[in-house]
Design goal:
- Helices cover 27% and strands 26% of the residues.
- The protein is α+β, with helices and mostly antiparallel strands and 1057 residues long.
- The protein folds into 6 domains: 210 residues, RNA Cap, Translation Initiation Factor Eif4e (2-Layer Sandwich), CATH 3.30.760; 146 residues, no CATH class; 172 residues, DNA ligase/mRNA capping enzyme (D-amino Acid Aminotransferase, Chain A, domain 1); 98 residues, OB fold (Dihydrolipoamide Acetyltransferase, E2P) (Beta Barrel), CATH 2.40.50; 63 residues, Cysteine Rich Protein (Ribbon), CATH 2.10.110; 201 residues, Rossmann fold.
- Strands 35, 36, 37, 38, 39, 44, 45 and 46 form an 8-stranded mixed sheet that branches.
- Strand 18 and strand 19 form a beta hairpin.
- Helix 2 runs antiparallel to helix 4.
- The radius of gyration is 46 Å and the shape is elongated.
- The N terminus and C terminus are likely disordered.
C-alpha cells in the first residue's frame, strides 16, 4: 500500500493485520526548517501538528532495509552521522529530525493514531553537545540517542520517540553565527502522576547528561512545529513594558522582579516565573499556533542585602536558557532609553541582535528576529561556551564571588609614579613573572559537586562552564582561582581560560602562603600549562595554567611569547603577597608603545568635506558616574574602510602615540561595536595614561635588578652608589657622603674620600683639593711671550702685560688647567713655559685658530707627555657655549680663565654680561682665578671727546659709561671700532654675587703693570701713556675652601638597620 505522502513503500495500515510487537517502530524523517522563529505573516495558519506535516510532506516515511532492529540501527546511524551544526538554512533540503512511531502515520491510514501521537503528552530532553556553528556533534548525538532510545523502547506506554534540531540567532554581524539546539522527545499515553516520576527518573538515569527534561503537552506537535511553538518578548523596566503593550497583545504575560542587591529575592522571583512557564507547557493544548509570552522584568533597588550587584543580563540569561532548554525562542528584548543607559552603560542598541529600543510588540514580532543569548555580547566574557546554571548554583557562586571579588588583587601598573615604590618592593622580595594575557579577568569557582563557575570581574556576571570541566572541579572542590579568558590562535571561536593564581583551595584561604606553595595547589589540579596544551578542546574552550619564571628571566618571556593566545607585557608576583594592605605589591608592565584606552564614539564626521574616505571620531570617556563626557576635545582619525560599522555610541579601543616634543595623538586599534556592558575608561584613567608615562624596556629591566642597588647601610634603593669592599655591601651615594665620600666634580672619580666646597657645596676629592693649592714650581717666571711679527702697538703692549699678569698669579694659585677666551694665540709660548698641563683656547677667527694649531704642533717638544693643548673656533659669548659646547670638550673645571682680549664683547647687554660672569664663576675651581683686560672709558668720559696721536674716542650725545652702551675707538688713526663699556663697579658687584673676590695685586692699569716691570725700559710718549692708563686689568679669585668633613665613626661606618 502506497502512503500518499511517502517517498517509499511502507507497511500496511494497522487495521490490516494484527497488533504490532511492542518494540517495533516505524521510521519517519522530519523535513523542518533549520531555523524556526515567529513569522507574523503566518499568524492565522496552523503550523504544528502531524496532520500539517503530512499534508505538506514534511513528515516522510522511511522503510529502506525492512523491519527489525538492524534496519532501525542503520537508519539512526545514517541519520545522526549526517547531523552537523550547519549555518543558517531556511529550506527543507535535508532532514532535520526523525520520528519513530509505534503506529503508521498516514493520511490514508488510521487517523486516530495520528491524533493520538499529536495530542499525547510527553517529555522534551535538551541534549548537551557543542552548540556553536561548525562544531562536531554527530558522535555525541549518536551515543546519546542510543542510551535514550534503548532505555525507552520496551516501555508499552511510549507511543513515539524522536529527535529534532533547531537553530537560533539571526545576526550576521557577529563572529558567533548562532546557537544550534538538539532535542529528544518522547510521546506517551496520558500519564498518571507515578508515570511522570518514572519517566523522569529513567531519563535522568541514562549515561548522557541532559541539560533539562521538560514535561510538555502534545510534545510531538510542540517539537515538530514548522514555526517556533512558543516565543518570548522581554521588556526591561516599566517604560519599556508600557511602550511594548501599546500596540499588540500577548497570549500570556509574566512579571519578574530583579533586586540587584538582593540575589535571594531575585532568584525567588525567577523560580516563580519558571514554575508558571513550565506549567504553560503542560497546560497548552495541541499548539496549533505559536504562543506569544510577554515577560516584564521590573528592577527594584529598594532592597540592599549584598554588595555584589546582580546584573540584569544574568536574569536575561535565565529567561533565554529556559527558552533554549524548552525549544522556545526569544523574539526580542525591549528597553527604554533610561534602562539602556543605566543598566547596560550604552546609549544605542542594534536590532539585528534582537535588542529593541522603545519598540511595540507588533513591531518586534514583525521584525522576525531570534534573540540568541550565546551570541549576545555582554561584558568581557564570551557567552557561547557558557551553559545553563541552576538557581542553587547561581546563589552559591554569587555568595563566593561576593566574598572574593573585593580581595582579588589588581596589578599596579608600572609607571613614573609607581617606579619608586616598585623598586623598593623588588629590592626586598624575590618576584615571579608571567606573561600578561590579553583577555577578560574572571574568577573560577568550584563547588562540592565539581561544577565550575565563571565570574566576570568587571561586570559581576556569573555563568556555568560546561560539564567537561568537572575534572578540575573534582580535583579542587570548593576552590577559587584567578584566571583570564583569552582568545585562542587556533580558531576565531576558540578560547582558553588561563589560571594565573589561586585564592582559596578547598575552603582554605591560601593568599598568605608564599607564592611557590600557593602555586603548588594549582599544579596539584593536574592542569596543563599553555605551552604543553596550546589548543582548545572540541568544545571551543580549555582551562590551562600560566607559566611562571623568576624575575631575572623576564627577558626570555618577552622574546618567546605564548604561541596559543595573545599577550601584552608582563605581570610580577612577589614571593609573599599581603592583599590586606591598601596597595597590592603585584605589578604589571606594558610597553609604552602599546598603551591603549577605551572610548565611546561621539560624533563622526568627514575630515575633508569633498571626500568621505577619512573619518574623524570624537572621543568620549566616562565620568564619575555612568554618564559620558568629551575627553579634552580629542579625536581619532581613521580610514572608513578599516571600520565601516563605526558610528556614534560605538565602543572603540585606541593606541596612545607620542612624538619627541611631548605631544600625543590616538590611533584606532579596533572597534567593539555596541557590546552590552563593555564600559569606556574613566576620565581619570585616561589622564593617567596620557600624563604619567610608563616605563621603557630598559627601565623595566633595571627594575628587575633593583636588589643589586639596595644600600646595605640605609637599605634604600639607589643606582648612584658603589660596592663597599670593606663591608662587602653596596652603598648608596648618600651613605658614602655621610661617611666622607662623594663624586669629585673636578676629576670625576666616583665615591672617593673628600670634602665639600664651603661656597656651593660641590664635592671634591682630597687629591683634587691638594692640586687646587699646588703651584707650578717649575714655571719660568719672567719669560715674556714674543708678540707676532708686524704687531701693532696695542698688541705689543697687551702681549707683554698679559705675560706679566701670568707671572703675578702663578706663584699664588694653581695654573695647570687654563681656559683662554678670545685667545689670539699670542700667549701659547708663555703658558708652555709656565708648565701648564692643560690649555684650551677659543677664538672666533678660523685663521687665528689655524695659526695657533700650527704653533702648538711646532712646540710639542717643549711640552710634557701629559700636556694637552688645543685651540678651537667658537663663539664664547653665545647663549649655549658654556652649558653645551664647553662641557663636551672639557667637562671639568679650570684653575685659570683669562680674557686678555675681546672681554668687552660680553657687555652688549646687562644680561649677557651677567651670564658670562656667572658662567666663568661656575667653571672655576674653588680658589681659581679669572683675569680680564678691557679699555676703561670712565676716566676719559669727563674730558668729553678725546683724541691724540695714538688713539681717538667718539661717543653719542646721550652716552653714559654704563653697561649696555658703547663708544668708538681708533688706535694709530685706524678704523673706528665699536667697543662696549665695561663698568668696573658693575663688574665687581656681579662678581661678588657669583662668589668672585678681587685680587688687588693683579688689578692695575697697563701703565702700572709696566712701571713695575724692571725689564721694560722703552721710552713712551704722552699719547701712549694715556692709552696705557685707559687699558685696565682686573683679576678675581673664586671663594671656597674645603669644608670640615664628617669624621667616620663606628656608628656611621658600619651597617645600620
Amino acid at each position: 500500500m502506497l502512503n500518499a505522502n511517502a517517498r517509499s513503500f511502507v507497511p500496511q495500515a494497522a487495521g490490516d493485520h494484527g497488533a504490532p510487537h511492542r518494540s517495533n517502530f516505524y521510521r519517519y524523517l522530519l523535513m523542518l526548517p533549520t531555523i524556526r522563529k515567529y513569522d507574523a505573516t503566518k499568524e492565522s495558519e496552523e503550523t504544528s501538528g502531524l496532520f500539517q506535516l503530512l499534508t505538506k510532506r514534511l513528515l516522510c516515511s522511511y522503510s529502506h532495509g525492512g523491519p527489525g532492529d538492524d534496519a532501525l540501527q542503520v537508519f539512526t546511524t545514517t541519520f545522526f552521522s549526517n547531523v552537523k551544526n550547519a549555518g543558517y538554512c531556511s529550506g527543507t533540503e535535508a532532514p532535520t529530525g526523525i520520528l519513530l512511531s509505534r503506529s503508521i502515520l498516514s493520511l490514508t491510514g488510521t487517523v486516530s493514531d495520528i491524533c493520538a501521537i499529536s495530542a499525547a503528552p510527553g517529555f522534551l530532553v535538551r541534549v548537551e553537545v557543542p552548540k556553536e556553528c561548525g562544531a562536531e556533534v554527530a558522535p555525541q548525538l549518536k551515543a546519546a540517542w542510543d542510551d535514550y532510545f534503548w532505555t525507552l523502547r520496551e516501555d508499552p506506554r511510549v507511543l513515539a520517540v524522536g529527535y529534532v534540531g533547531s537553530f537560533c540567532g539571526t545576526s550576521s554581524s557577529r563572529r558567533y553565527a548562532g546557537t544550534h539546539r538538539h532535542y529528544f522527545f518522547v510521546s506517551i499515553i496520558i500519564p498518571q502522576p507515578e508515570d511522570v516520576h518514572f519517566f523522569q527518573t529513567a531519563l535522568l538515569g541514562i549515561n548522557f547528561h541532559p541539560l533539562r527534561i521538560t514535561e510538555v503537552n502534545a510534545v510531538a506537535s510542540f517539537a515538530c512545529s514548522m514555526q517556533v511553538p512558543l516565543t518570548v518578548v522581554v521588556s526591561i523596566g516599566d517604560d519599556a513594558s508600557k511602550k511594548l503593550l501599546s500596540d499588540g497583545k500577548p497570549d500570556r504575560s509574566f512579571f519578574v522582579s530583579l533586586y540587584p542587591r538582593d540575589v535571594s529575592r531575585t532568584l525567588s522571583s525567577l523560580k516563580e516565573y519558571e514554575t508558571h512557564f513550565l506549567s504553560l507547557l503542560k497546560e497548552q493544548n495541541d499548539w496549533p499556533k505559536p504562543t506569544v509570552v510577554h515577560v516584564n522584568i521590573n528592577i527594584d533597588y529598594s532592597h540592599h542585602v549584598g554588595t555584589l550587584v546582580c546584573p540584569v543580563f544574568d536574569m536575561l540569561a535565565f529567561v533565554g536558557d529556559l527558552c533554549d532548554d524548552t525549544a522556545a525562542s526569544v523574539s526580542g528584548v525591549c528597553v527604554s532609553d533610561t534602562t539602556l543607559r543605566k543598566e547596560f552603560g550604552v546609549t544605542l542598541c542594534t536590532e539585528a541582535d534582537g535588542w529593541f529600543l522603545n519598540a511595540t510588540l507588533n513591531y518586534v514580532l514583525a521584525a522576525g528576529r531570534s534573540f540568541d543569548m550565546s551570541s549576545t555580547c555582554f561584558g568581557y566574557v564570551p557567552q557561547h561556551f557558557r551553559r545553563s546554571i541552576t538557581f542553587a548554583q547561581y546563589e552559591y557562586a554569587h555568595k563566593i564571588a561576593e566574598k572574593w571579588l573585593p580581595v582579588n588583587c589588581v596589578p599596579v601598573p608600572l609607571n613614573r609614579m609607581t617606579f619608586a615604590a616598585a623598586a623598593e618592593e623588588f629590592s626586598k622580595y624575590p618576584y615571579y613573572v608571567r606573561s600578561k594575557t590579553v583577555g577578560a579577568n574572571v574568577l573560577l569557582i568550584t563547588n562540592s559537586e565539581g561544577d565550575v563557575f565563571c565570574v566576570d570581574v568587571k561586570t559581576g556576571s556569573i555563568s556555568a562552564l560546561p560539564d567537561y570541566f568537572r575534572g578540575l572541579g573534582g580535583r579542587a572542590k570548593n576552590s577559587v582561582f584567578s584566571a583570564v579568558v583569552a582568545s585562542s590562535y587556533r580558531s576565531y571561536l576558540d578560547y582558553v581560560i588561563i589560571v594565573e593564581d589561586i585564592l582559596s583551595f578547598e575552603e582554605a584561604d591560601v593568599r598568605e602562603l608564599p607564592f611557590p606553595e600557593r602555586w603548588f595547589y594549582v599544579e596539584k589540579c593536574l592542569l596543563d600549562n599553555y605551552a604543553s596544551r596550546p589548543h582548545t578542546s572540541p568544545n571551543r574552550v580549555a582551562i590551562v595554567r600560566t607559566i611562571y619564571t623568576v624575575s631575572t628571566q623576564a627577558e626570555r618571556l618577552l622574546r618567546n611569547p605564548p604561541a596559543g593566545h595573545p599577550t601584552l607585557g608582563l605581570v610580577f608576583v612577589p614571593h609573599v603577597t599581603n592583599c590586606k594592605e591598601k596597595d597590592t605589591s603585584v605589578y604589571s608592565w606594558i610597553p609604552t608603545s602599546s598603551t591603549t584606552a577605551v572610548f565611546i564614539v561621539g560624533d563622526v564626521e568627514n575630515v575633508h568635506p569633498e571626500s568621505g574616505d577619512v573619518k574623524r571620531a570624537w572621543l568620549l570617556v566616562a565620568d564619575s558616574g555612568k554618564n559620558t563626557m568629551s575627553y579634552n576635545n580629542e579625536y581619532v582619525d581613521y580610514i572608513w574602510d578599516s571600520a565601516p560599522e563605526l558610528r556614534s555610541g560605538s565602543v572603540i579601543e585606541c593606541v596612545l602615540k607620542r612624538s619627541d616634543d611631548g605631544s600625543h595623538w590616538w590611533e584606532l586599534l579596533r572597534g567593539r561595536g555596541l557590546d552590552m556592558g563593555y564600559q569606556p575608561d574613566t576620565f581619570d584613567i585616561v589622564e593617567r595614561l596620557v600624563h604619567v608615562p610608563g616605563l621603557t624596556h630598559k627601565e623595566m629591566l633595571w627594575l628587575l635588578d633593583a636588589a643589586k642597588y639596595r644600600c646595605g647601610r640605609c637599605h634604600n634603593v639607589s643606582d648612584v652608589g658603589r660596592m663597599n669592599v670593606k663591608h662587602m655591601a653596596y652603598w648608596c651615594k648618600k651613605c658614602w657622603s655621610e661617611t666622607g665620600h662623594g663624586d669629585c666634580l673636578y676629576c670625576g672619580r666616583f665615591c672617593v674620600m673628600g670634602k665639600n666646597d664651603t661656597l656651593n657645596q660641590h664635592f671634591y676629592c682630597d687629591n683634587c683639593w691638594g692640586t687646587f693649592s699646588a703651584t707650578n714650581l717649575k714655571a719660568e717666571i719672567g719669560y715674556l711671550a714674543p708678540p707676532p711679527e708686524n704687531a701693532s702697538f696695542a698688541t705689543h703692549v697687551l702681549t707683554r702685560c698679559a705675560s706679566l699678569l701670568i707671572d703675578i698669579i702663578t706663584p699664588k694659585v694653581a695654573t695647570n688647567d687654563v681656559l683662554e677666551i678670545c685667545c689670539g694665540g699670542y700667549l701659547l709660548r708663555k703658558w708652555i713655559r709656565n708648565k701648564t698641563a692643560r690649555y684650551i683656547g677659543f677664538d672666533l677667527k678660523s685663521s687665528v685658530v689655524d695659526a695657533a694649531s700650527e704653533l702648538i704642533s711646532s712646540l710639542r717638544h717643549e711640552m710634557t707627555e701629559m700636556s694637552f693643548y688645543d685651540v678651537i673656533c667658537a663663539d664664547v659669548f653665545s647663549a649655549n657655549f658654556w652649558s653645551h659646547h664647553l662641557t663636551k670638550i672639557h667637562p671639568r673645571q679650570f684653575h685659570v680663565i683669562t680674557a686678555f682680549a675681546g672681554f668687552h664683547h660680553a657687555f652688549g647687554t646687562e644680561y649677557t654680561a651677567m651670564r658670562l660672569i656667572e658662567s666663568v664663576a661656575n667653571a672655576l675651581i674653588p680658589g681659581g682665578v679669572f683675569i680680564g683686560c678691557f679699555f676703561d672709558v670712565e676716566p676719559l668720559f669727563a674730558k668729553g671727546s678725546f683724541g691724540n696721536g695714538v688713539f681717538a674716542i667718539e661717543w653719542a650725545a646721550d652716552f653714559l659709561p654704563r653697561v649696555g652702551n658703547h663708544f668708538l675707538l681708533s688706535v694709530r688713526k685706524g678704523h673706528f671700532k665699536k667697543v662696549n663699556v665695561v663698568p668696573v663697579d658693575f663688574l665687581v658687584a656681579v662678581g661678588r654675587e657669583c662668589g668672585l673676590v678681587v685680587v688687588p695685586e693683579a688689578c692695575s692699569t697697563f701703565q702700572g703693570i709696566l712701571d713695575n716691570d724692571r725689564g721694560f725700559n722703552k721710552t713712551i710718549s704722552s699719547g701712549e701713556k694715556d692709552y696705557l692708563l685707559a687699558m685696565r686689568a682686573i683679576a678675581f679669585r673664586k671663594e671656597g675652601n674645603a669644608q670640615a668633613g664628617v669624621v667616620p665613626t663606628q656608628n656611621n661606618d658600619l651597617n645600620r638597620d
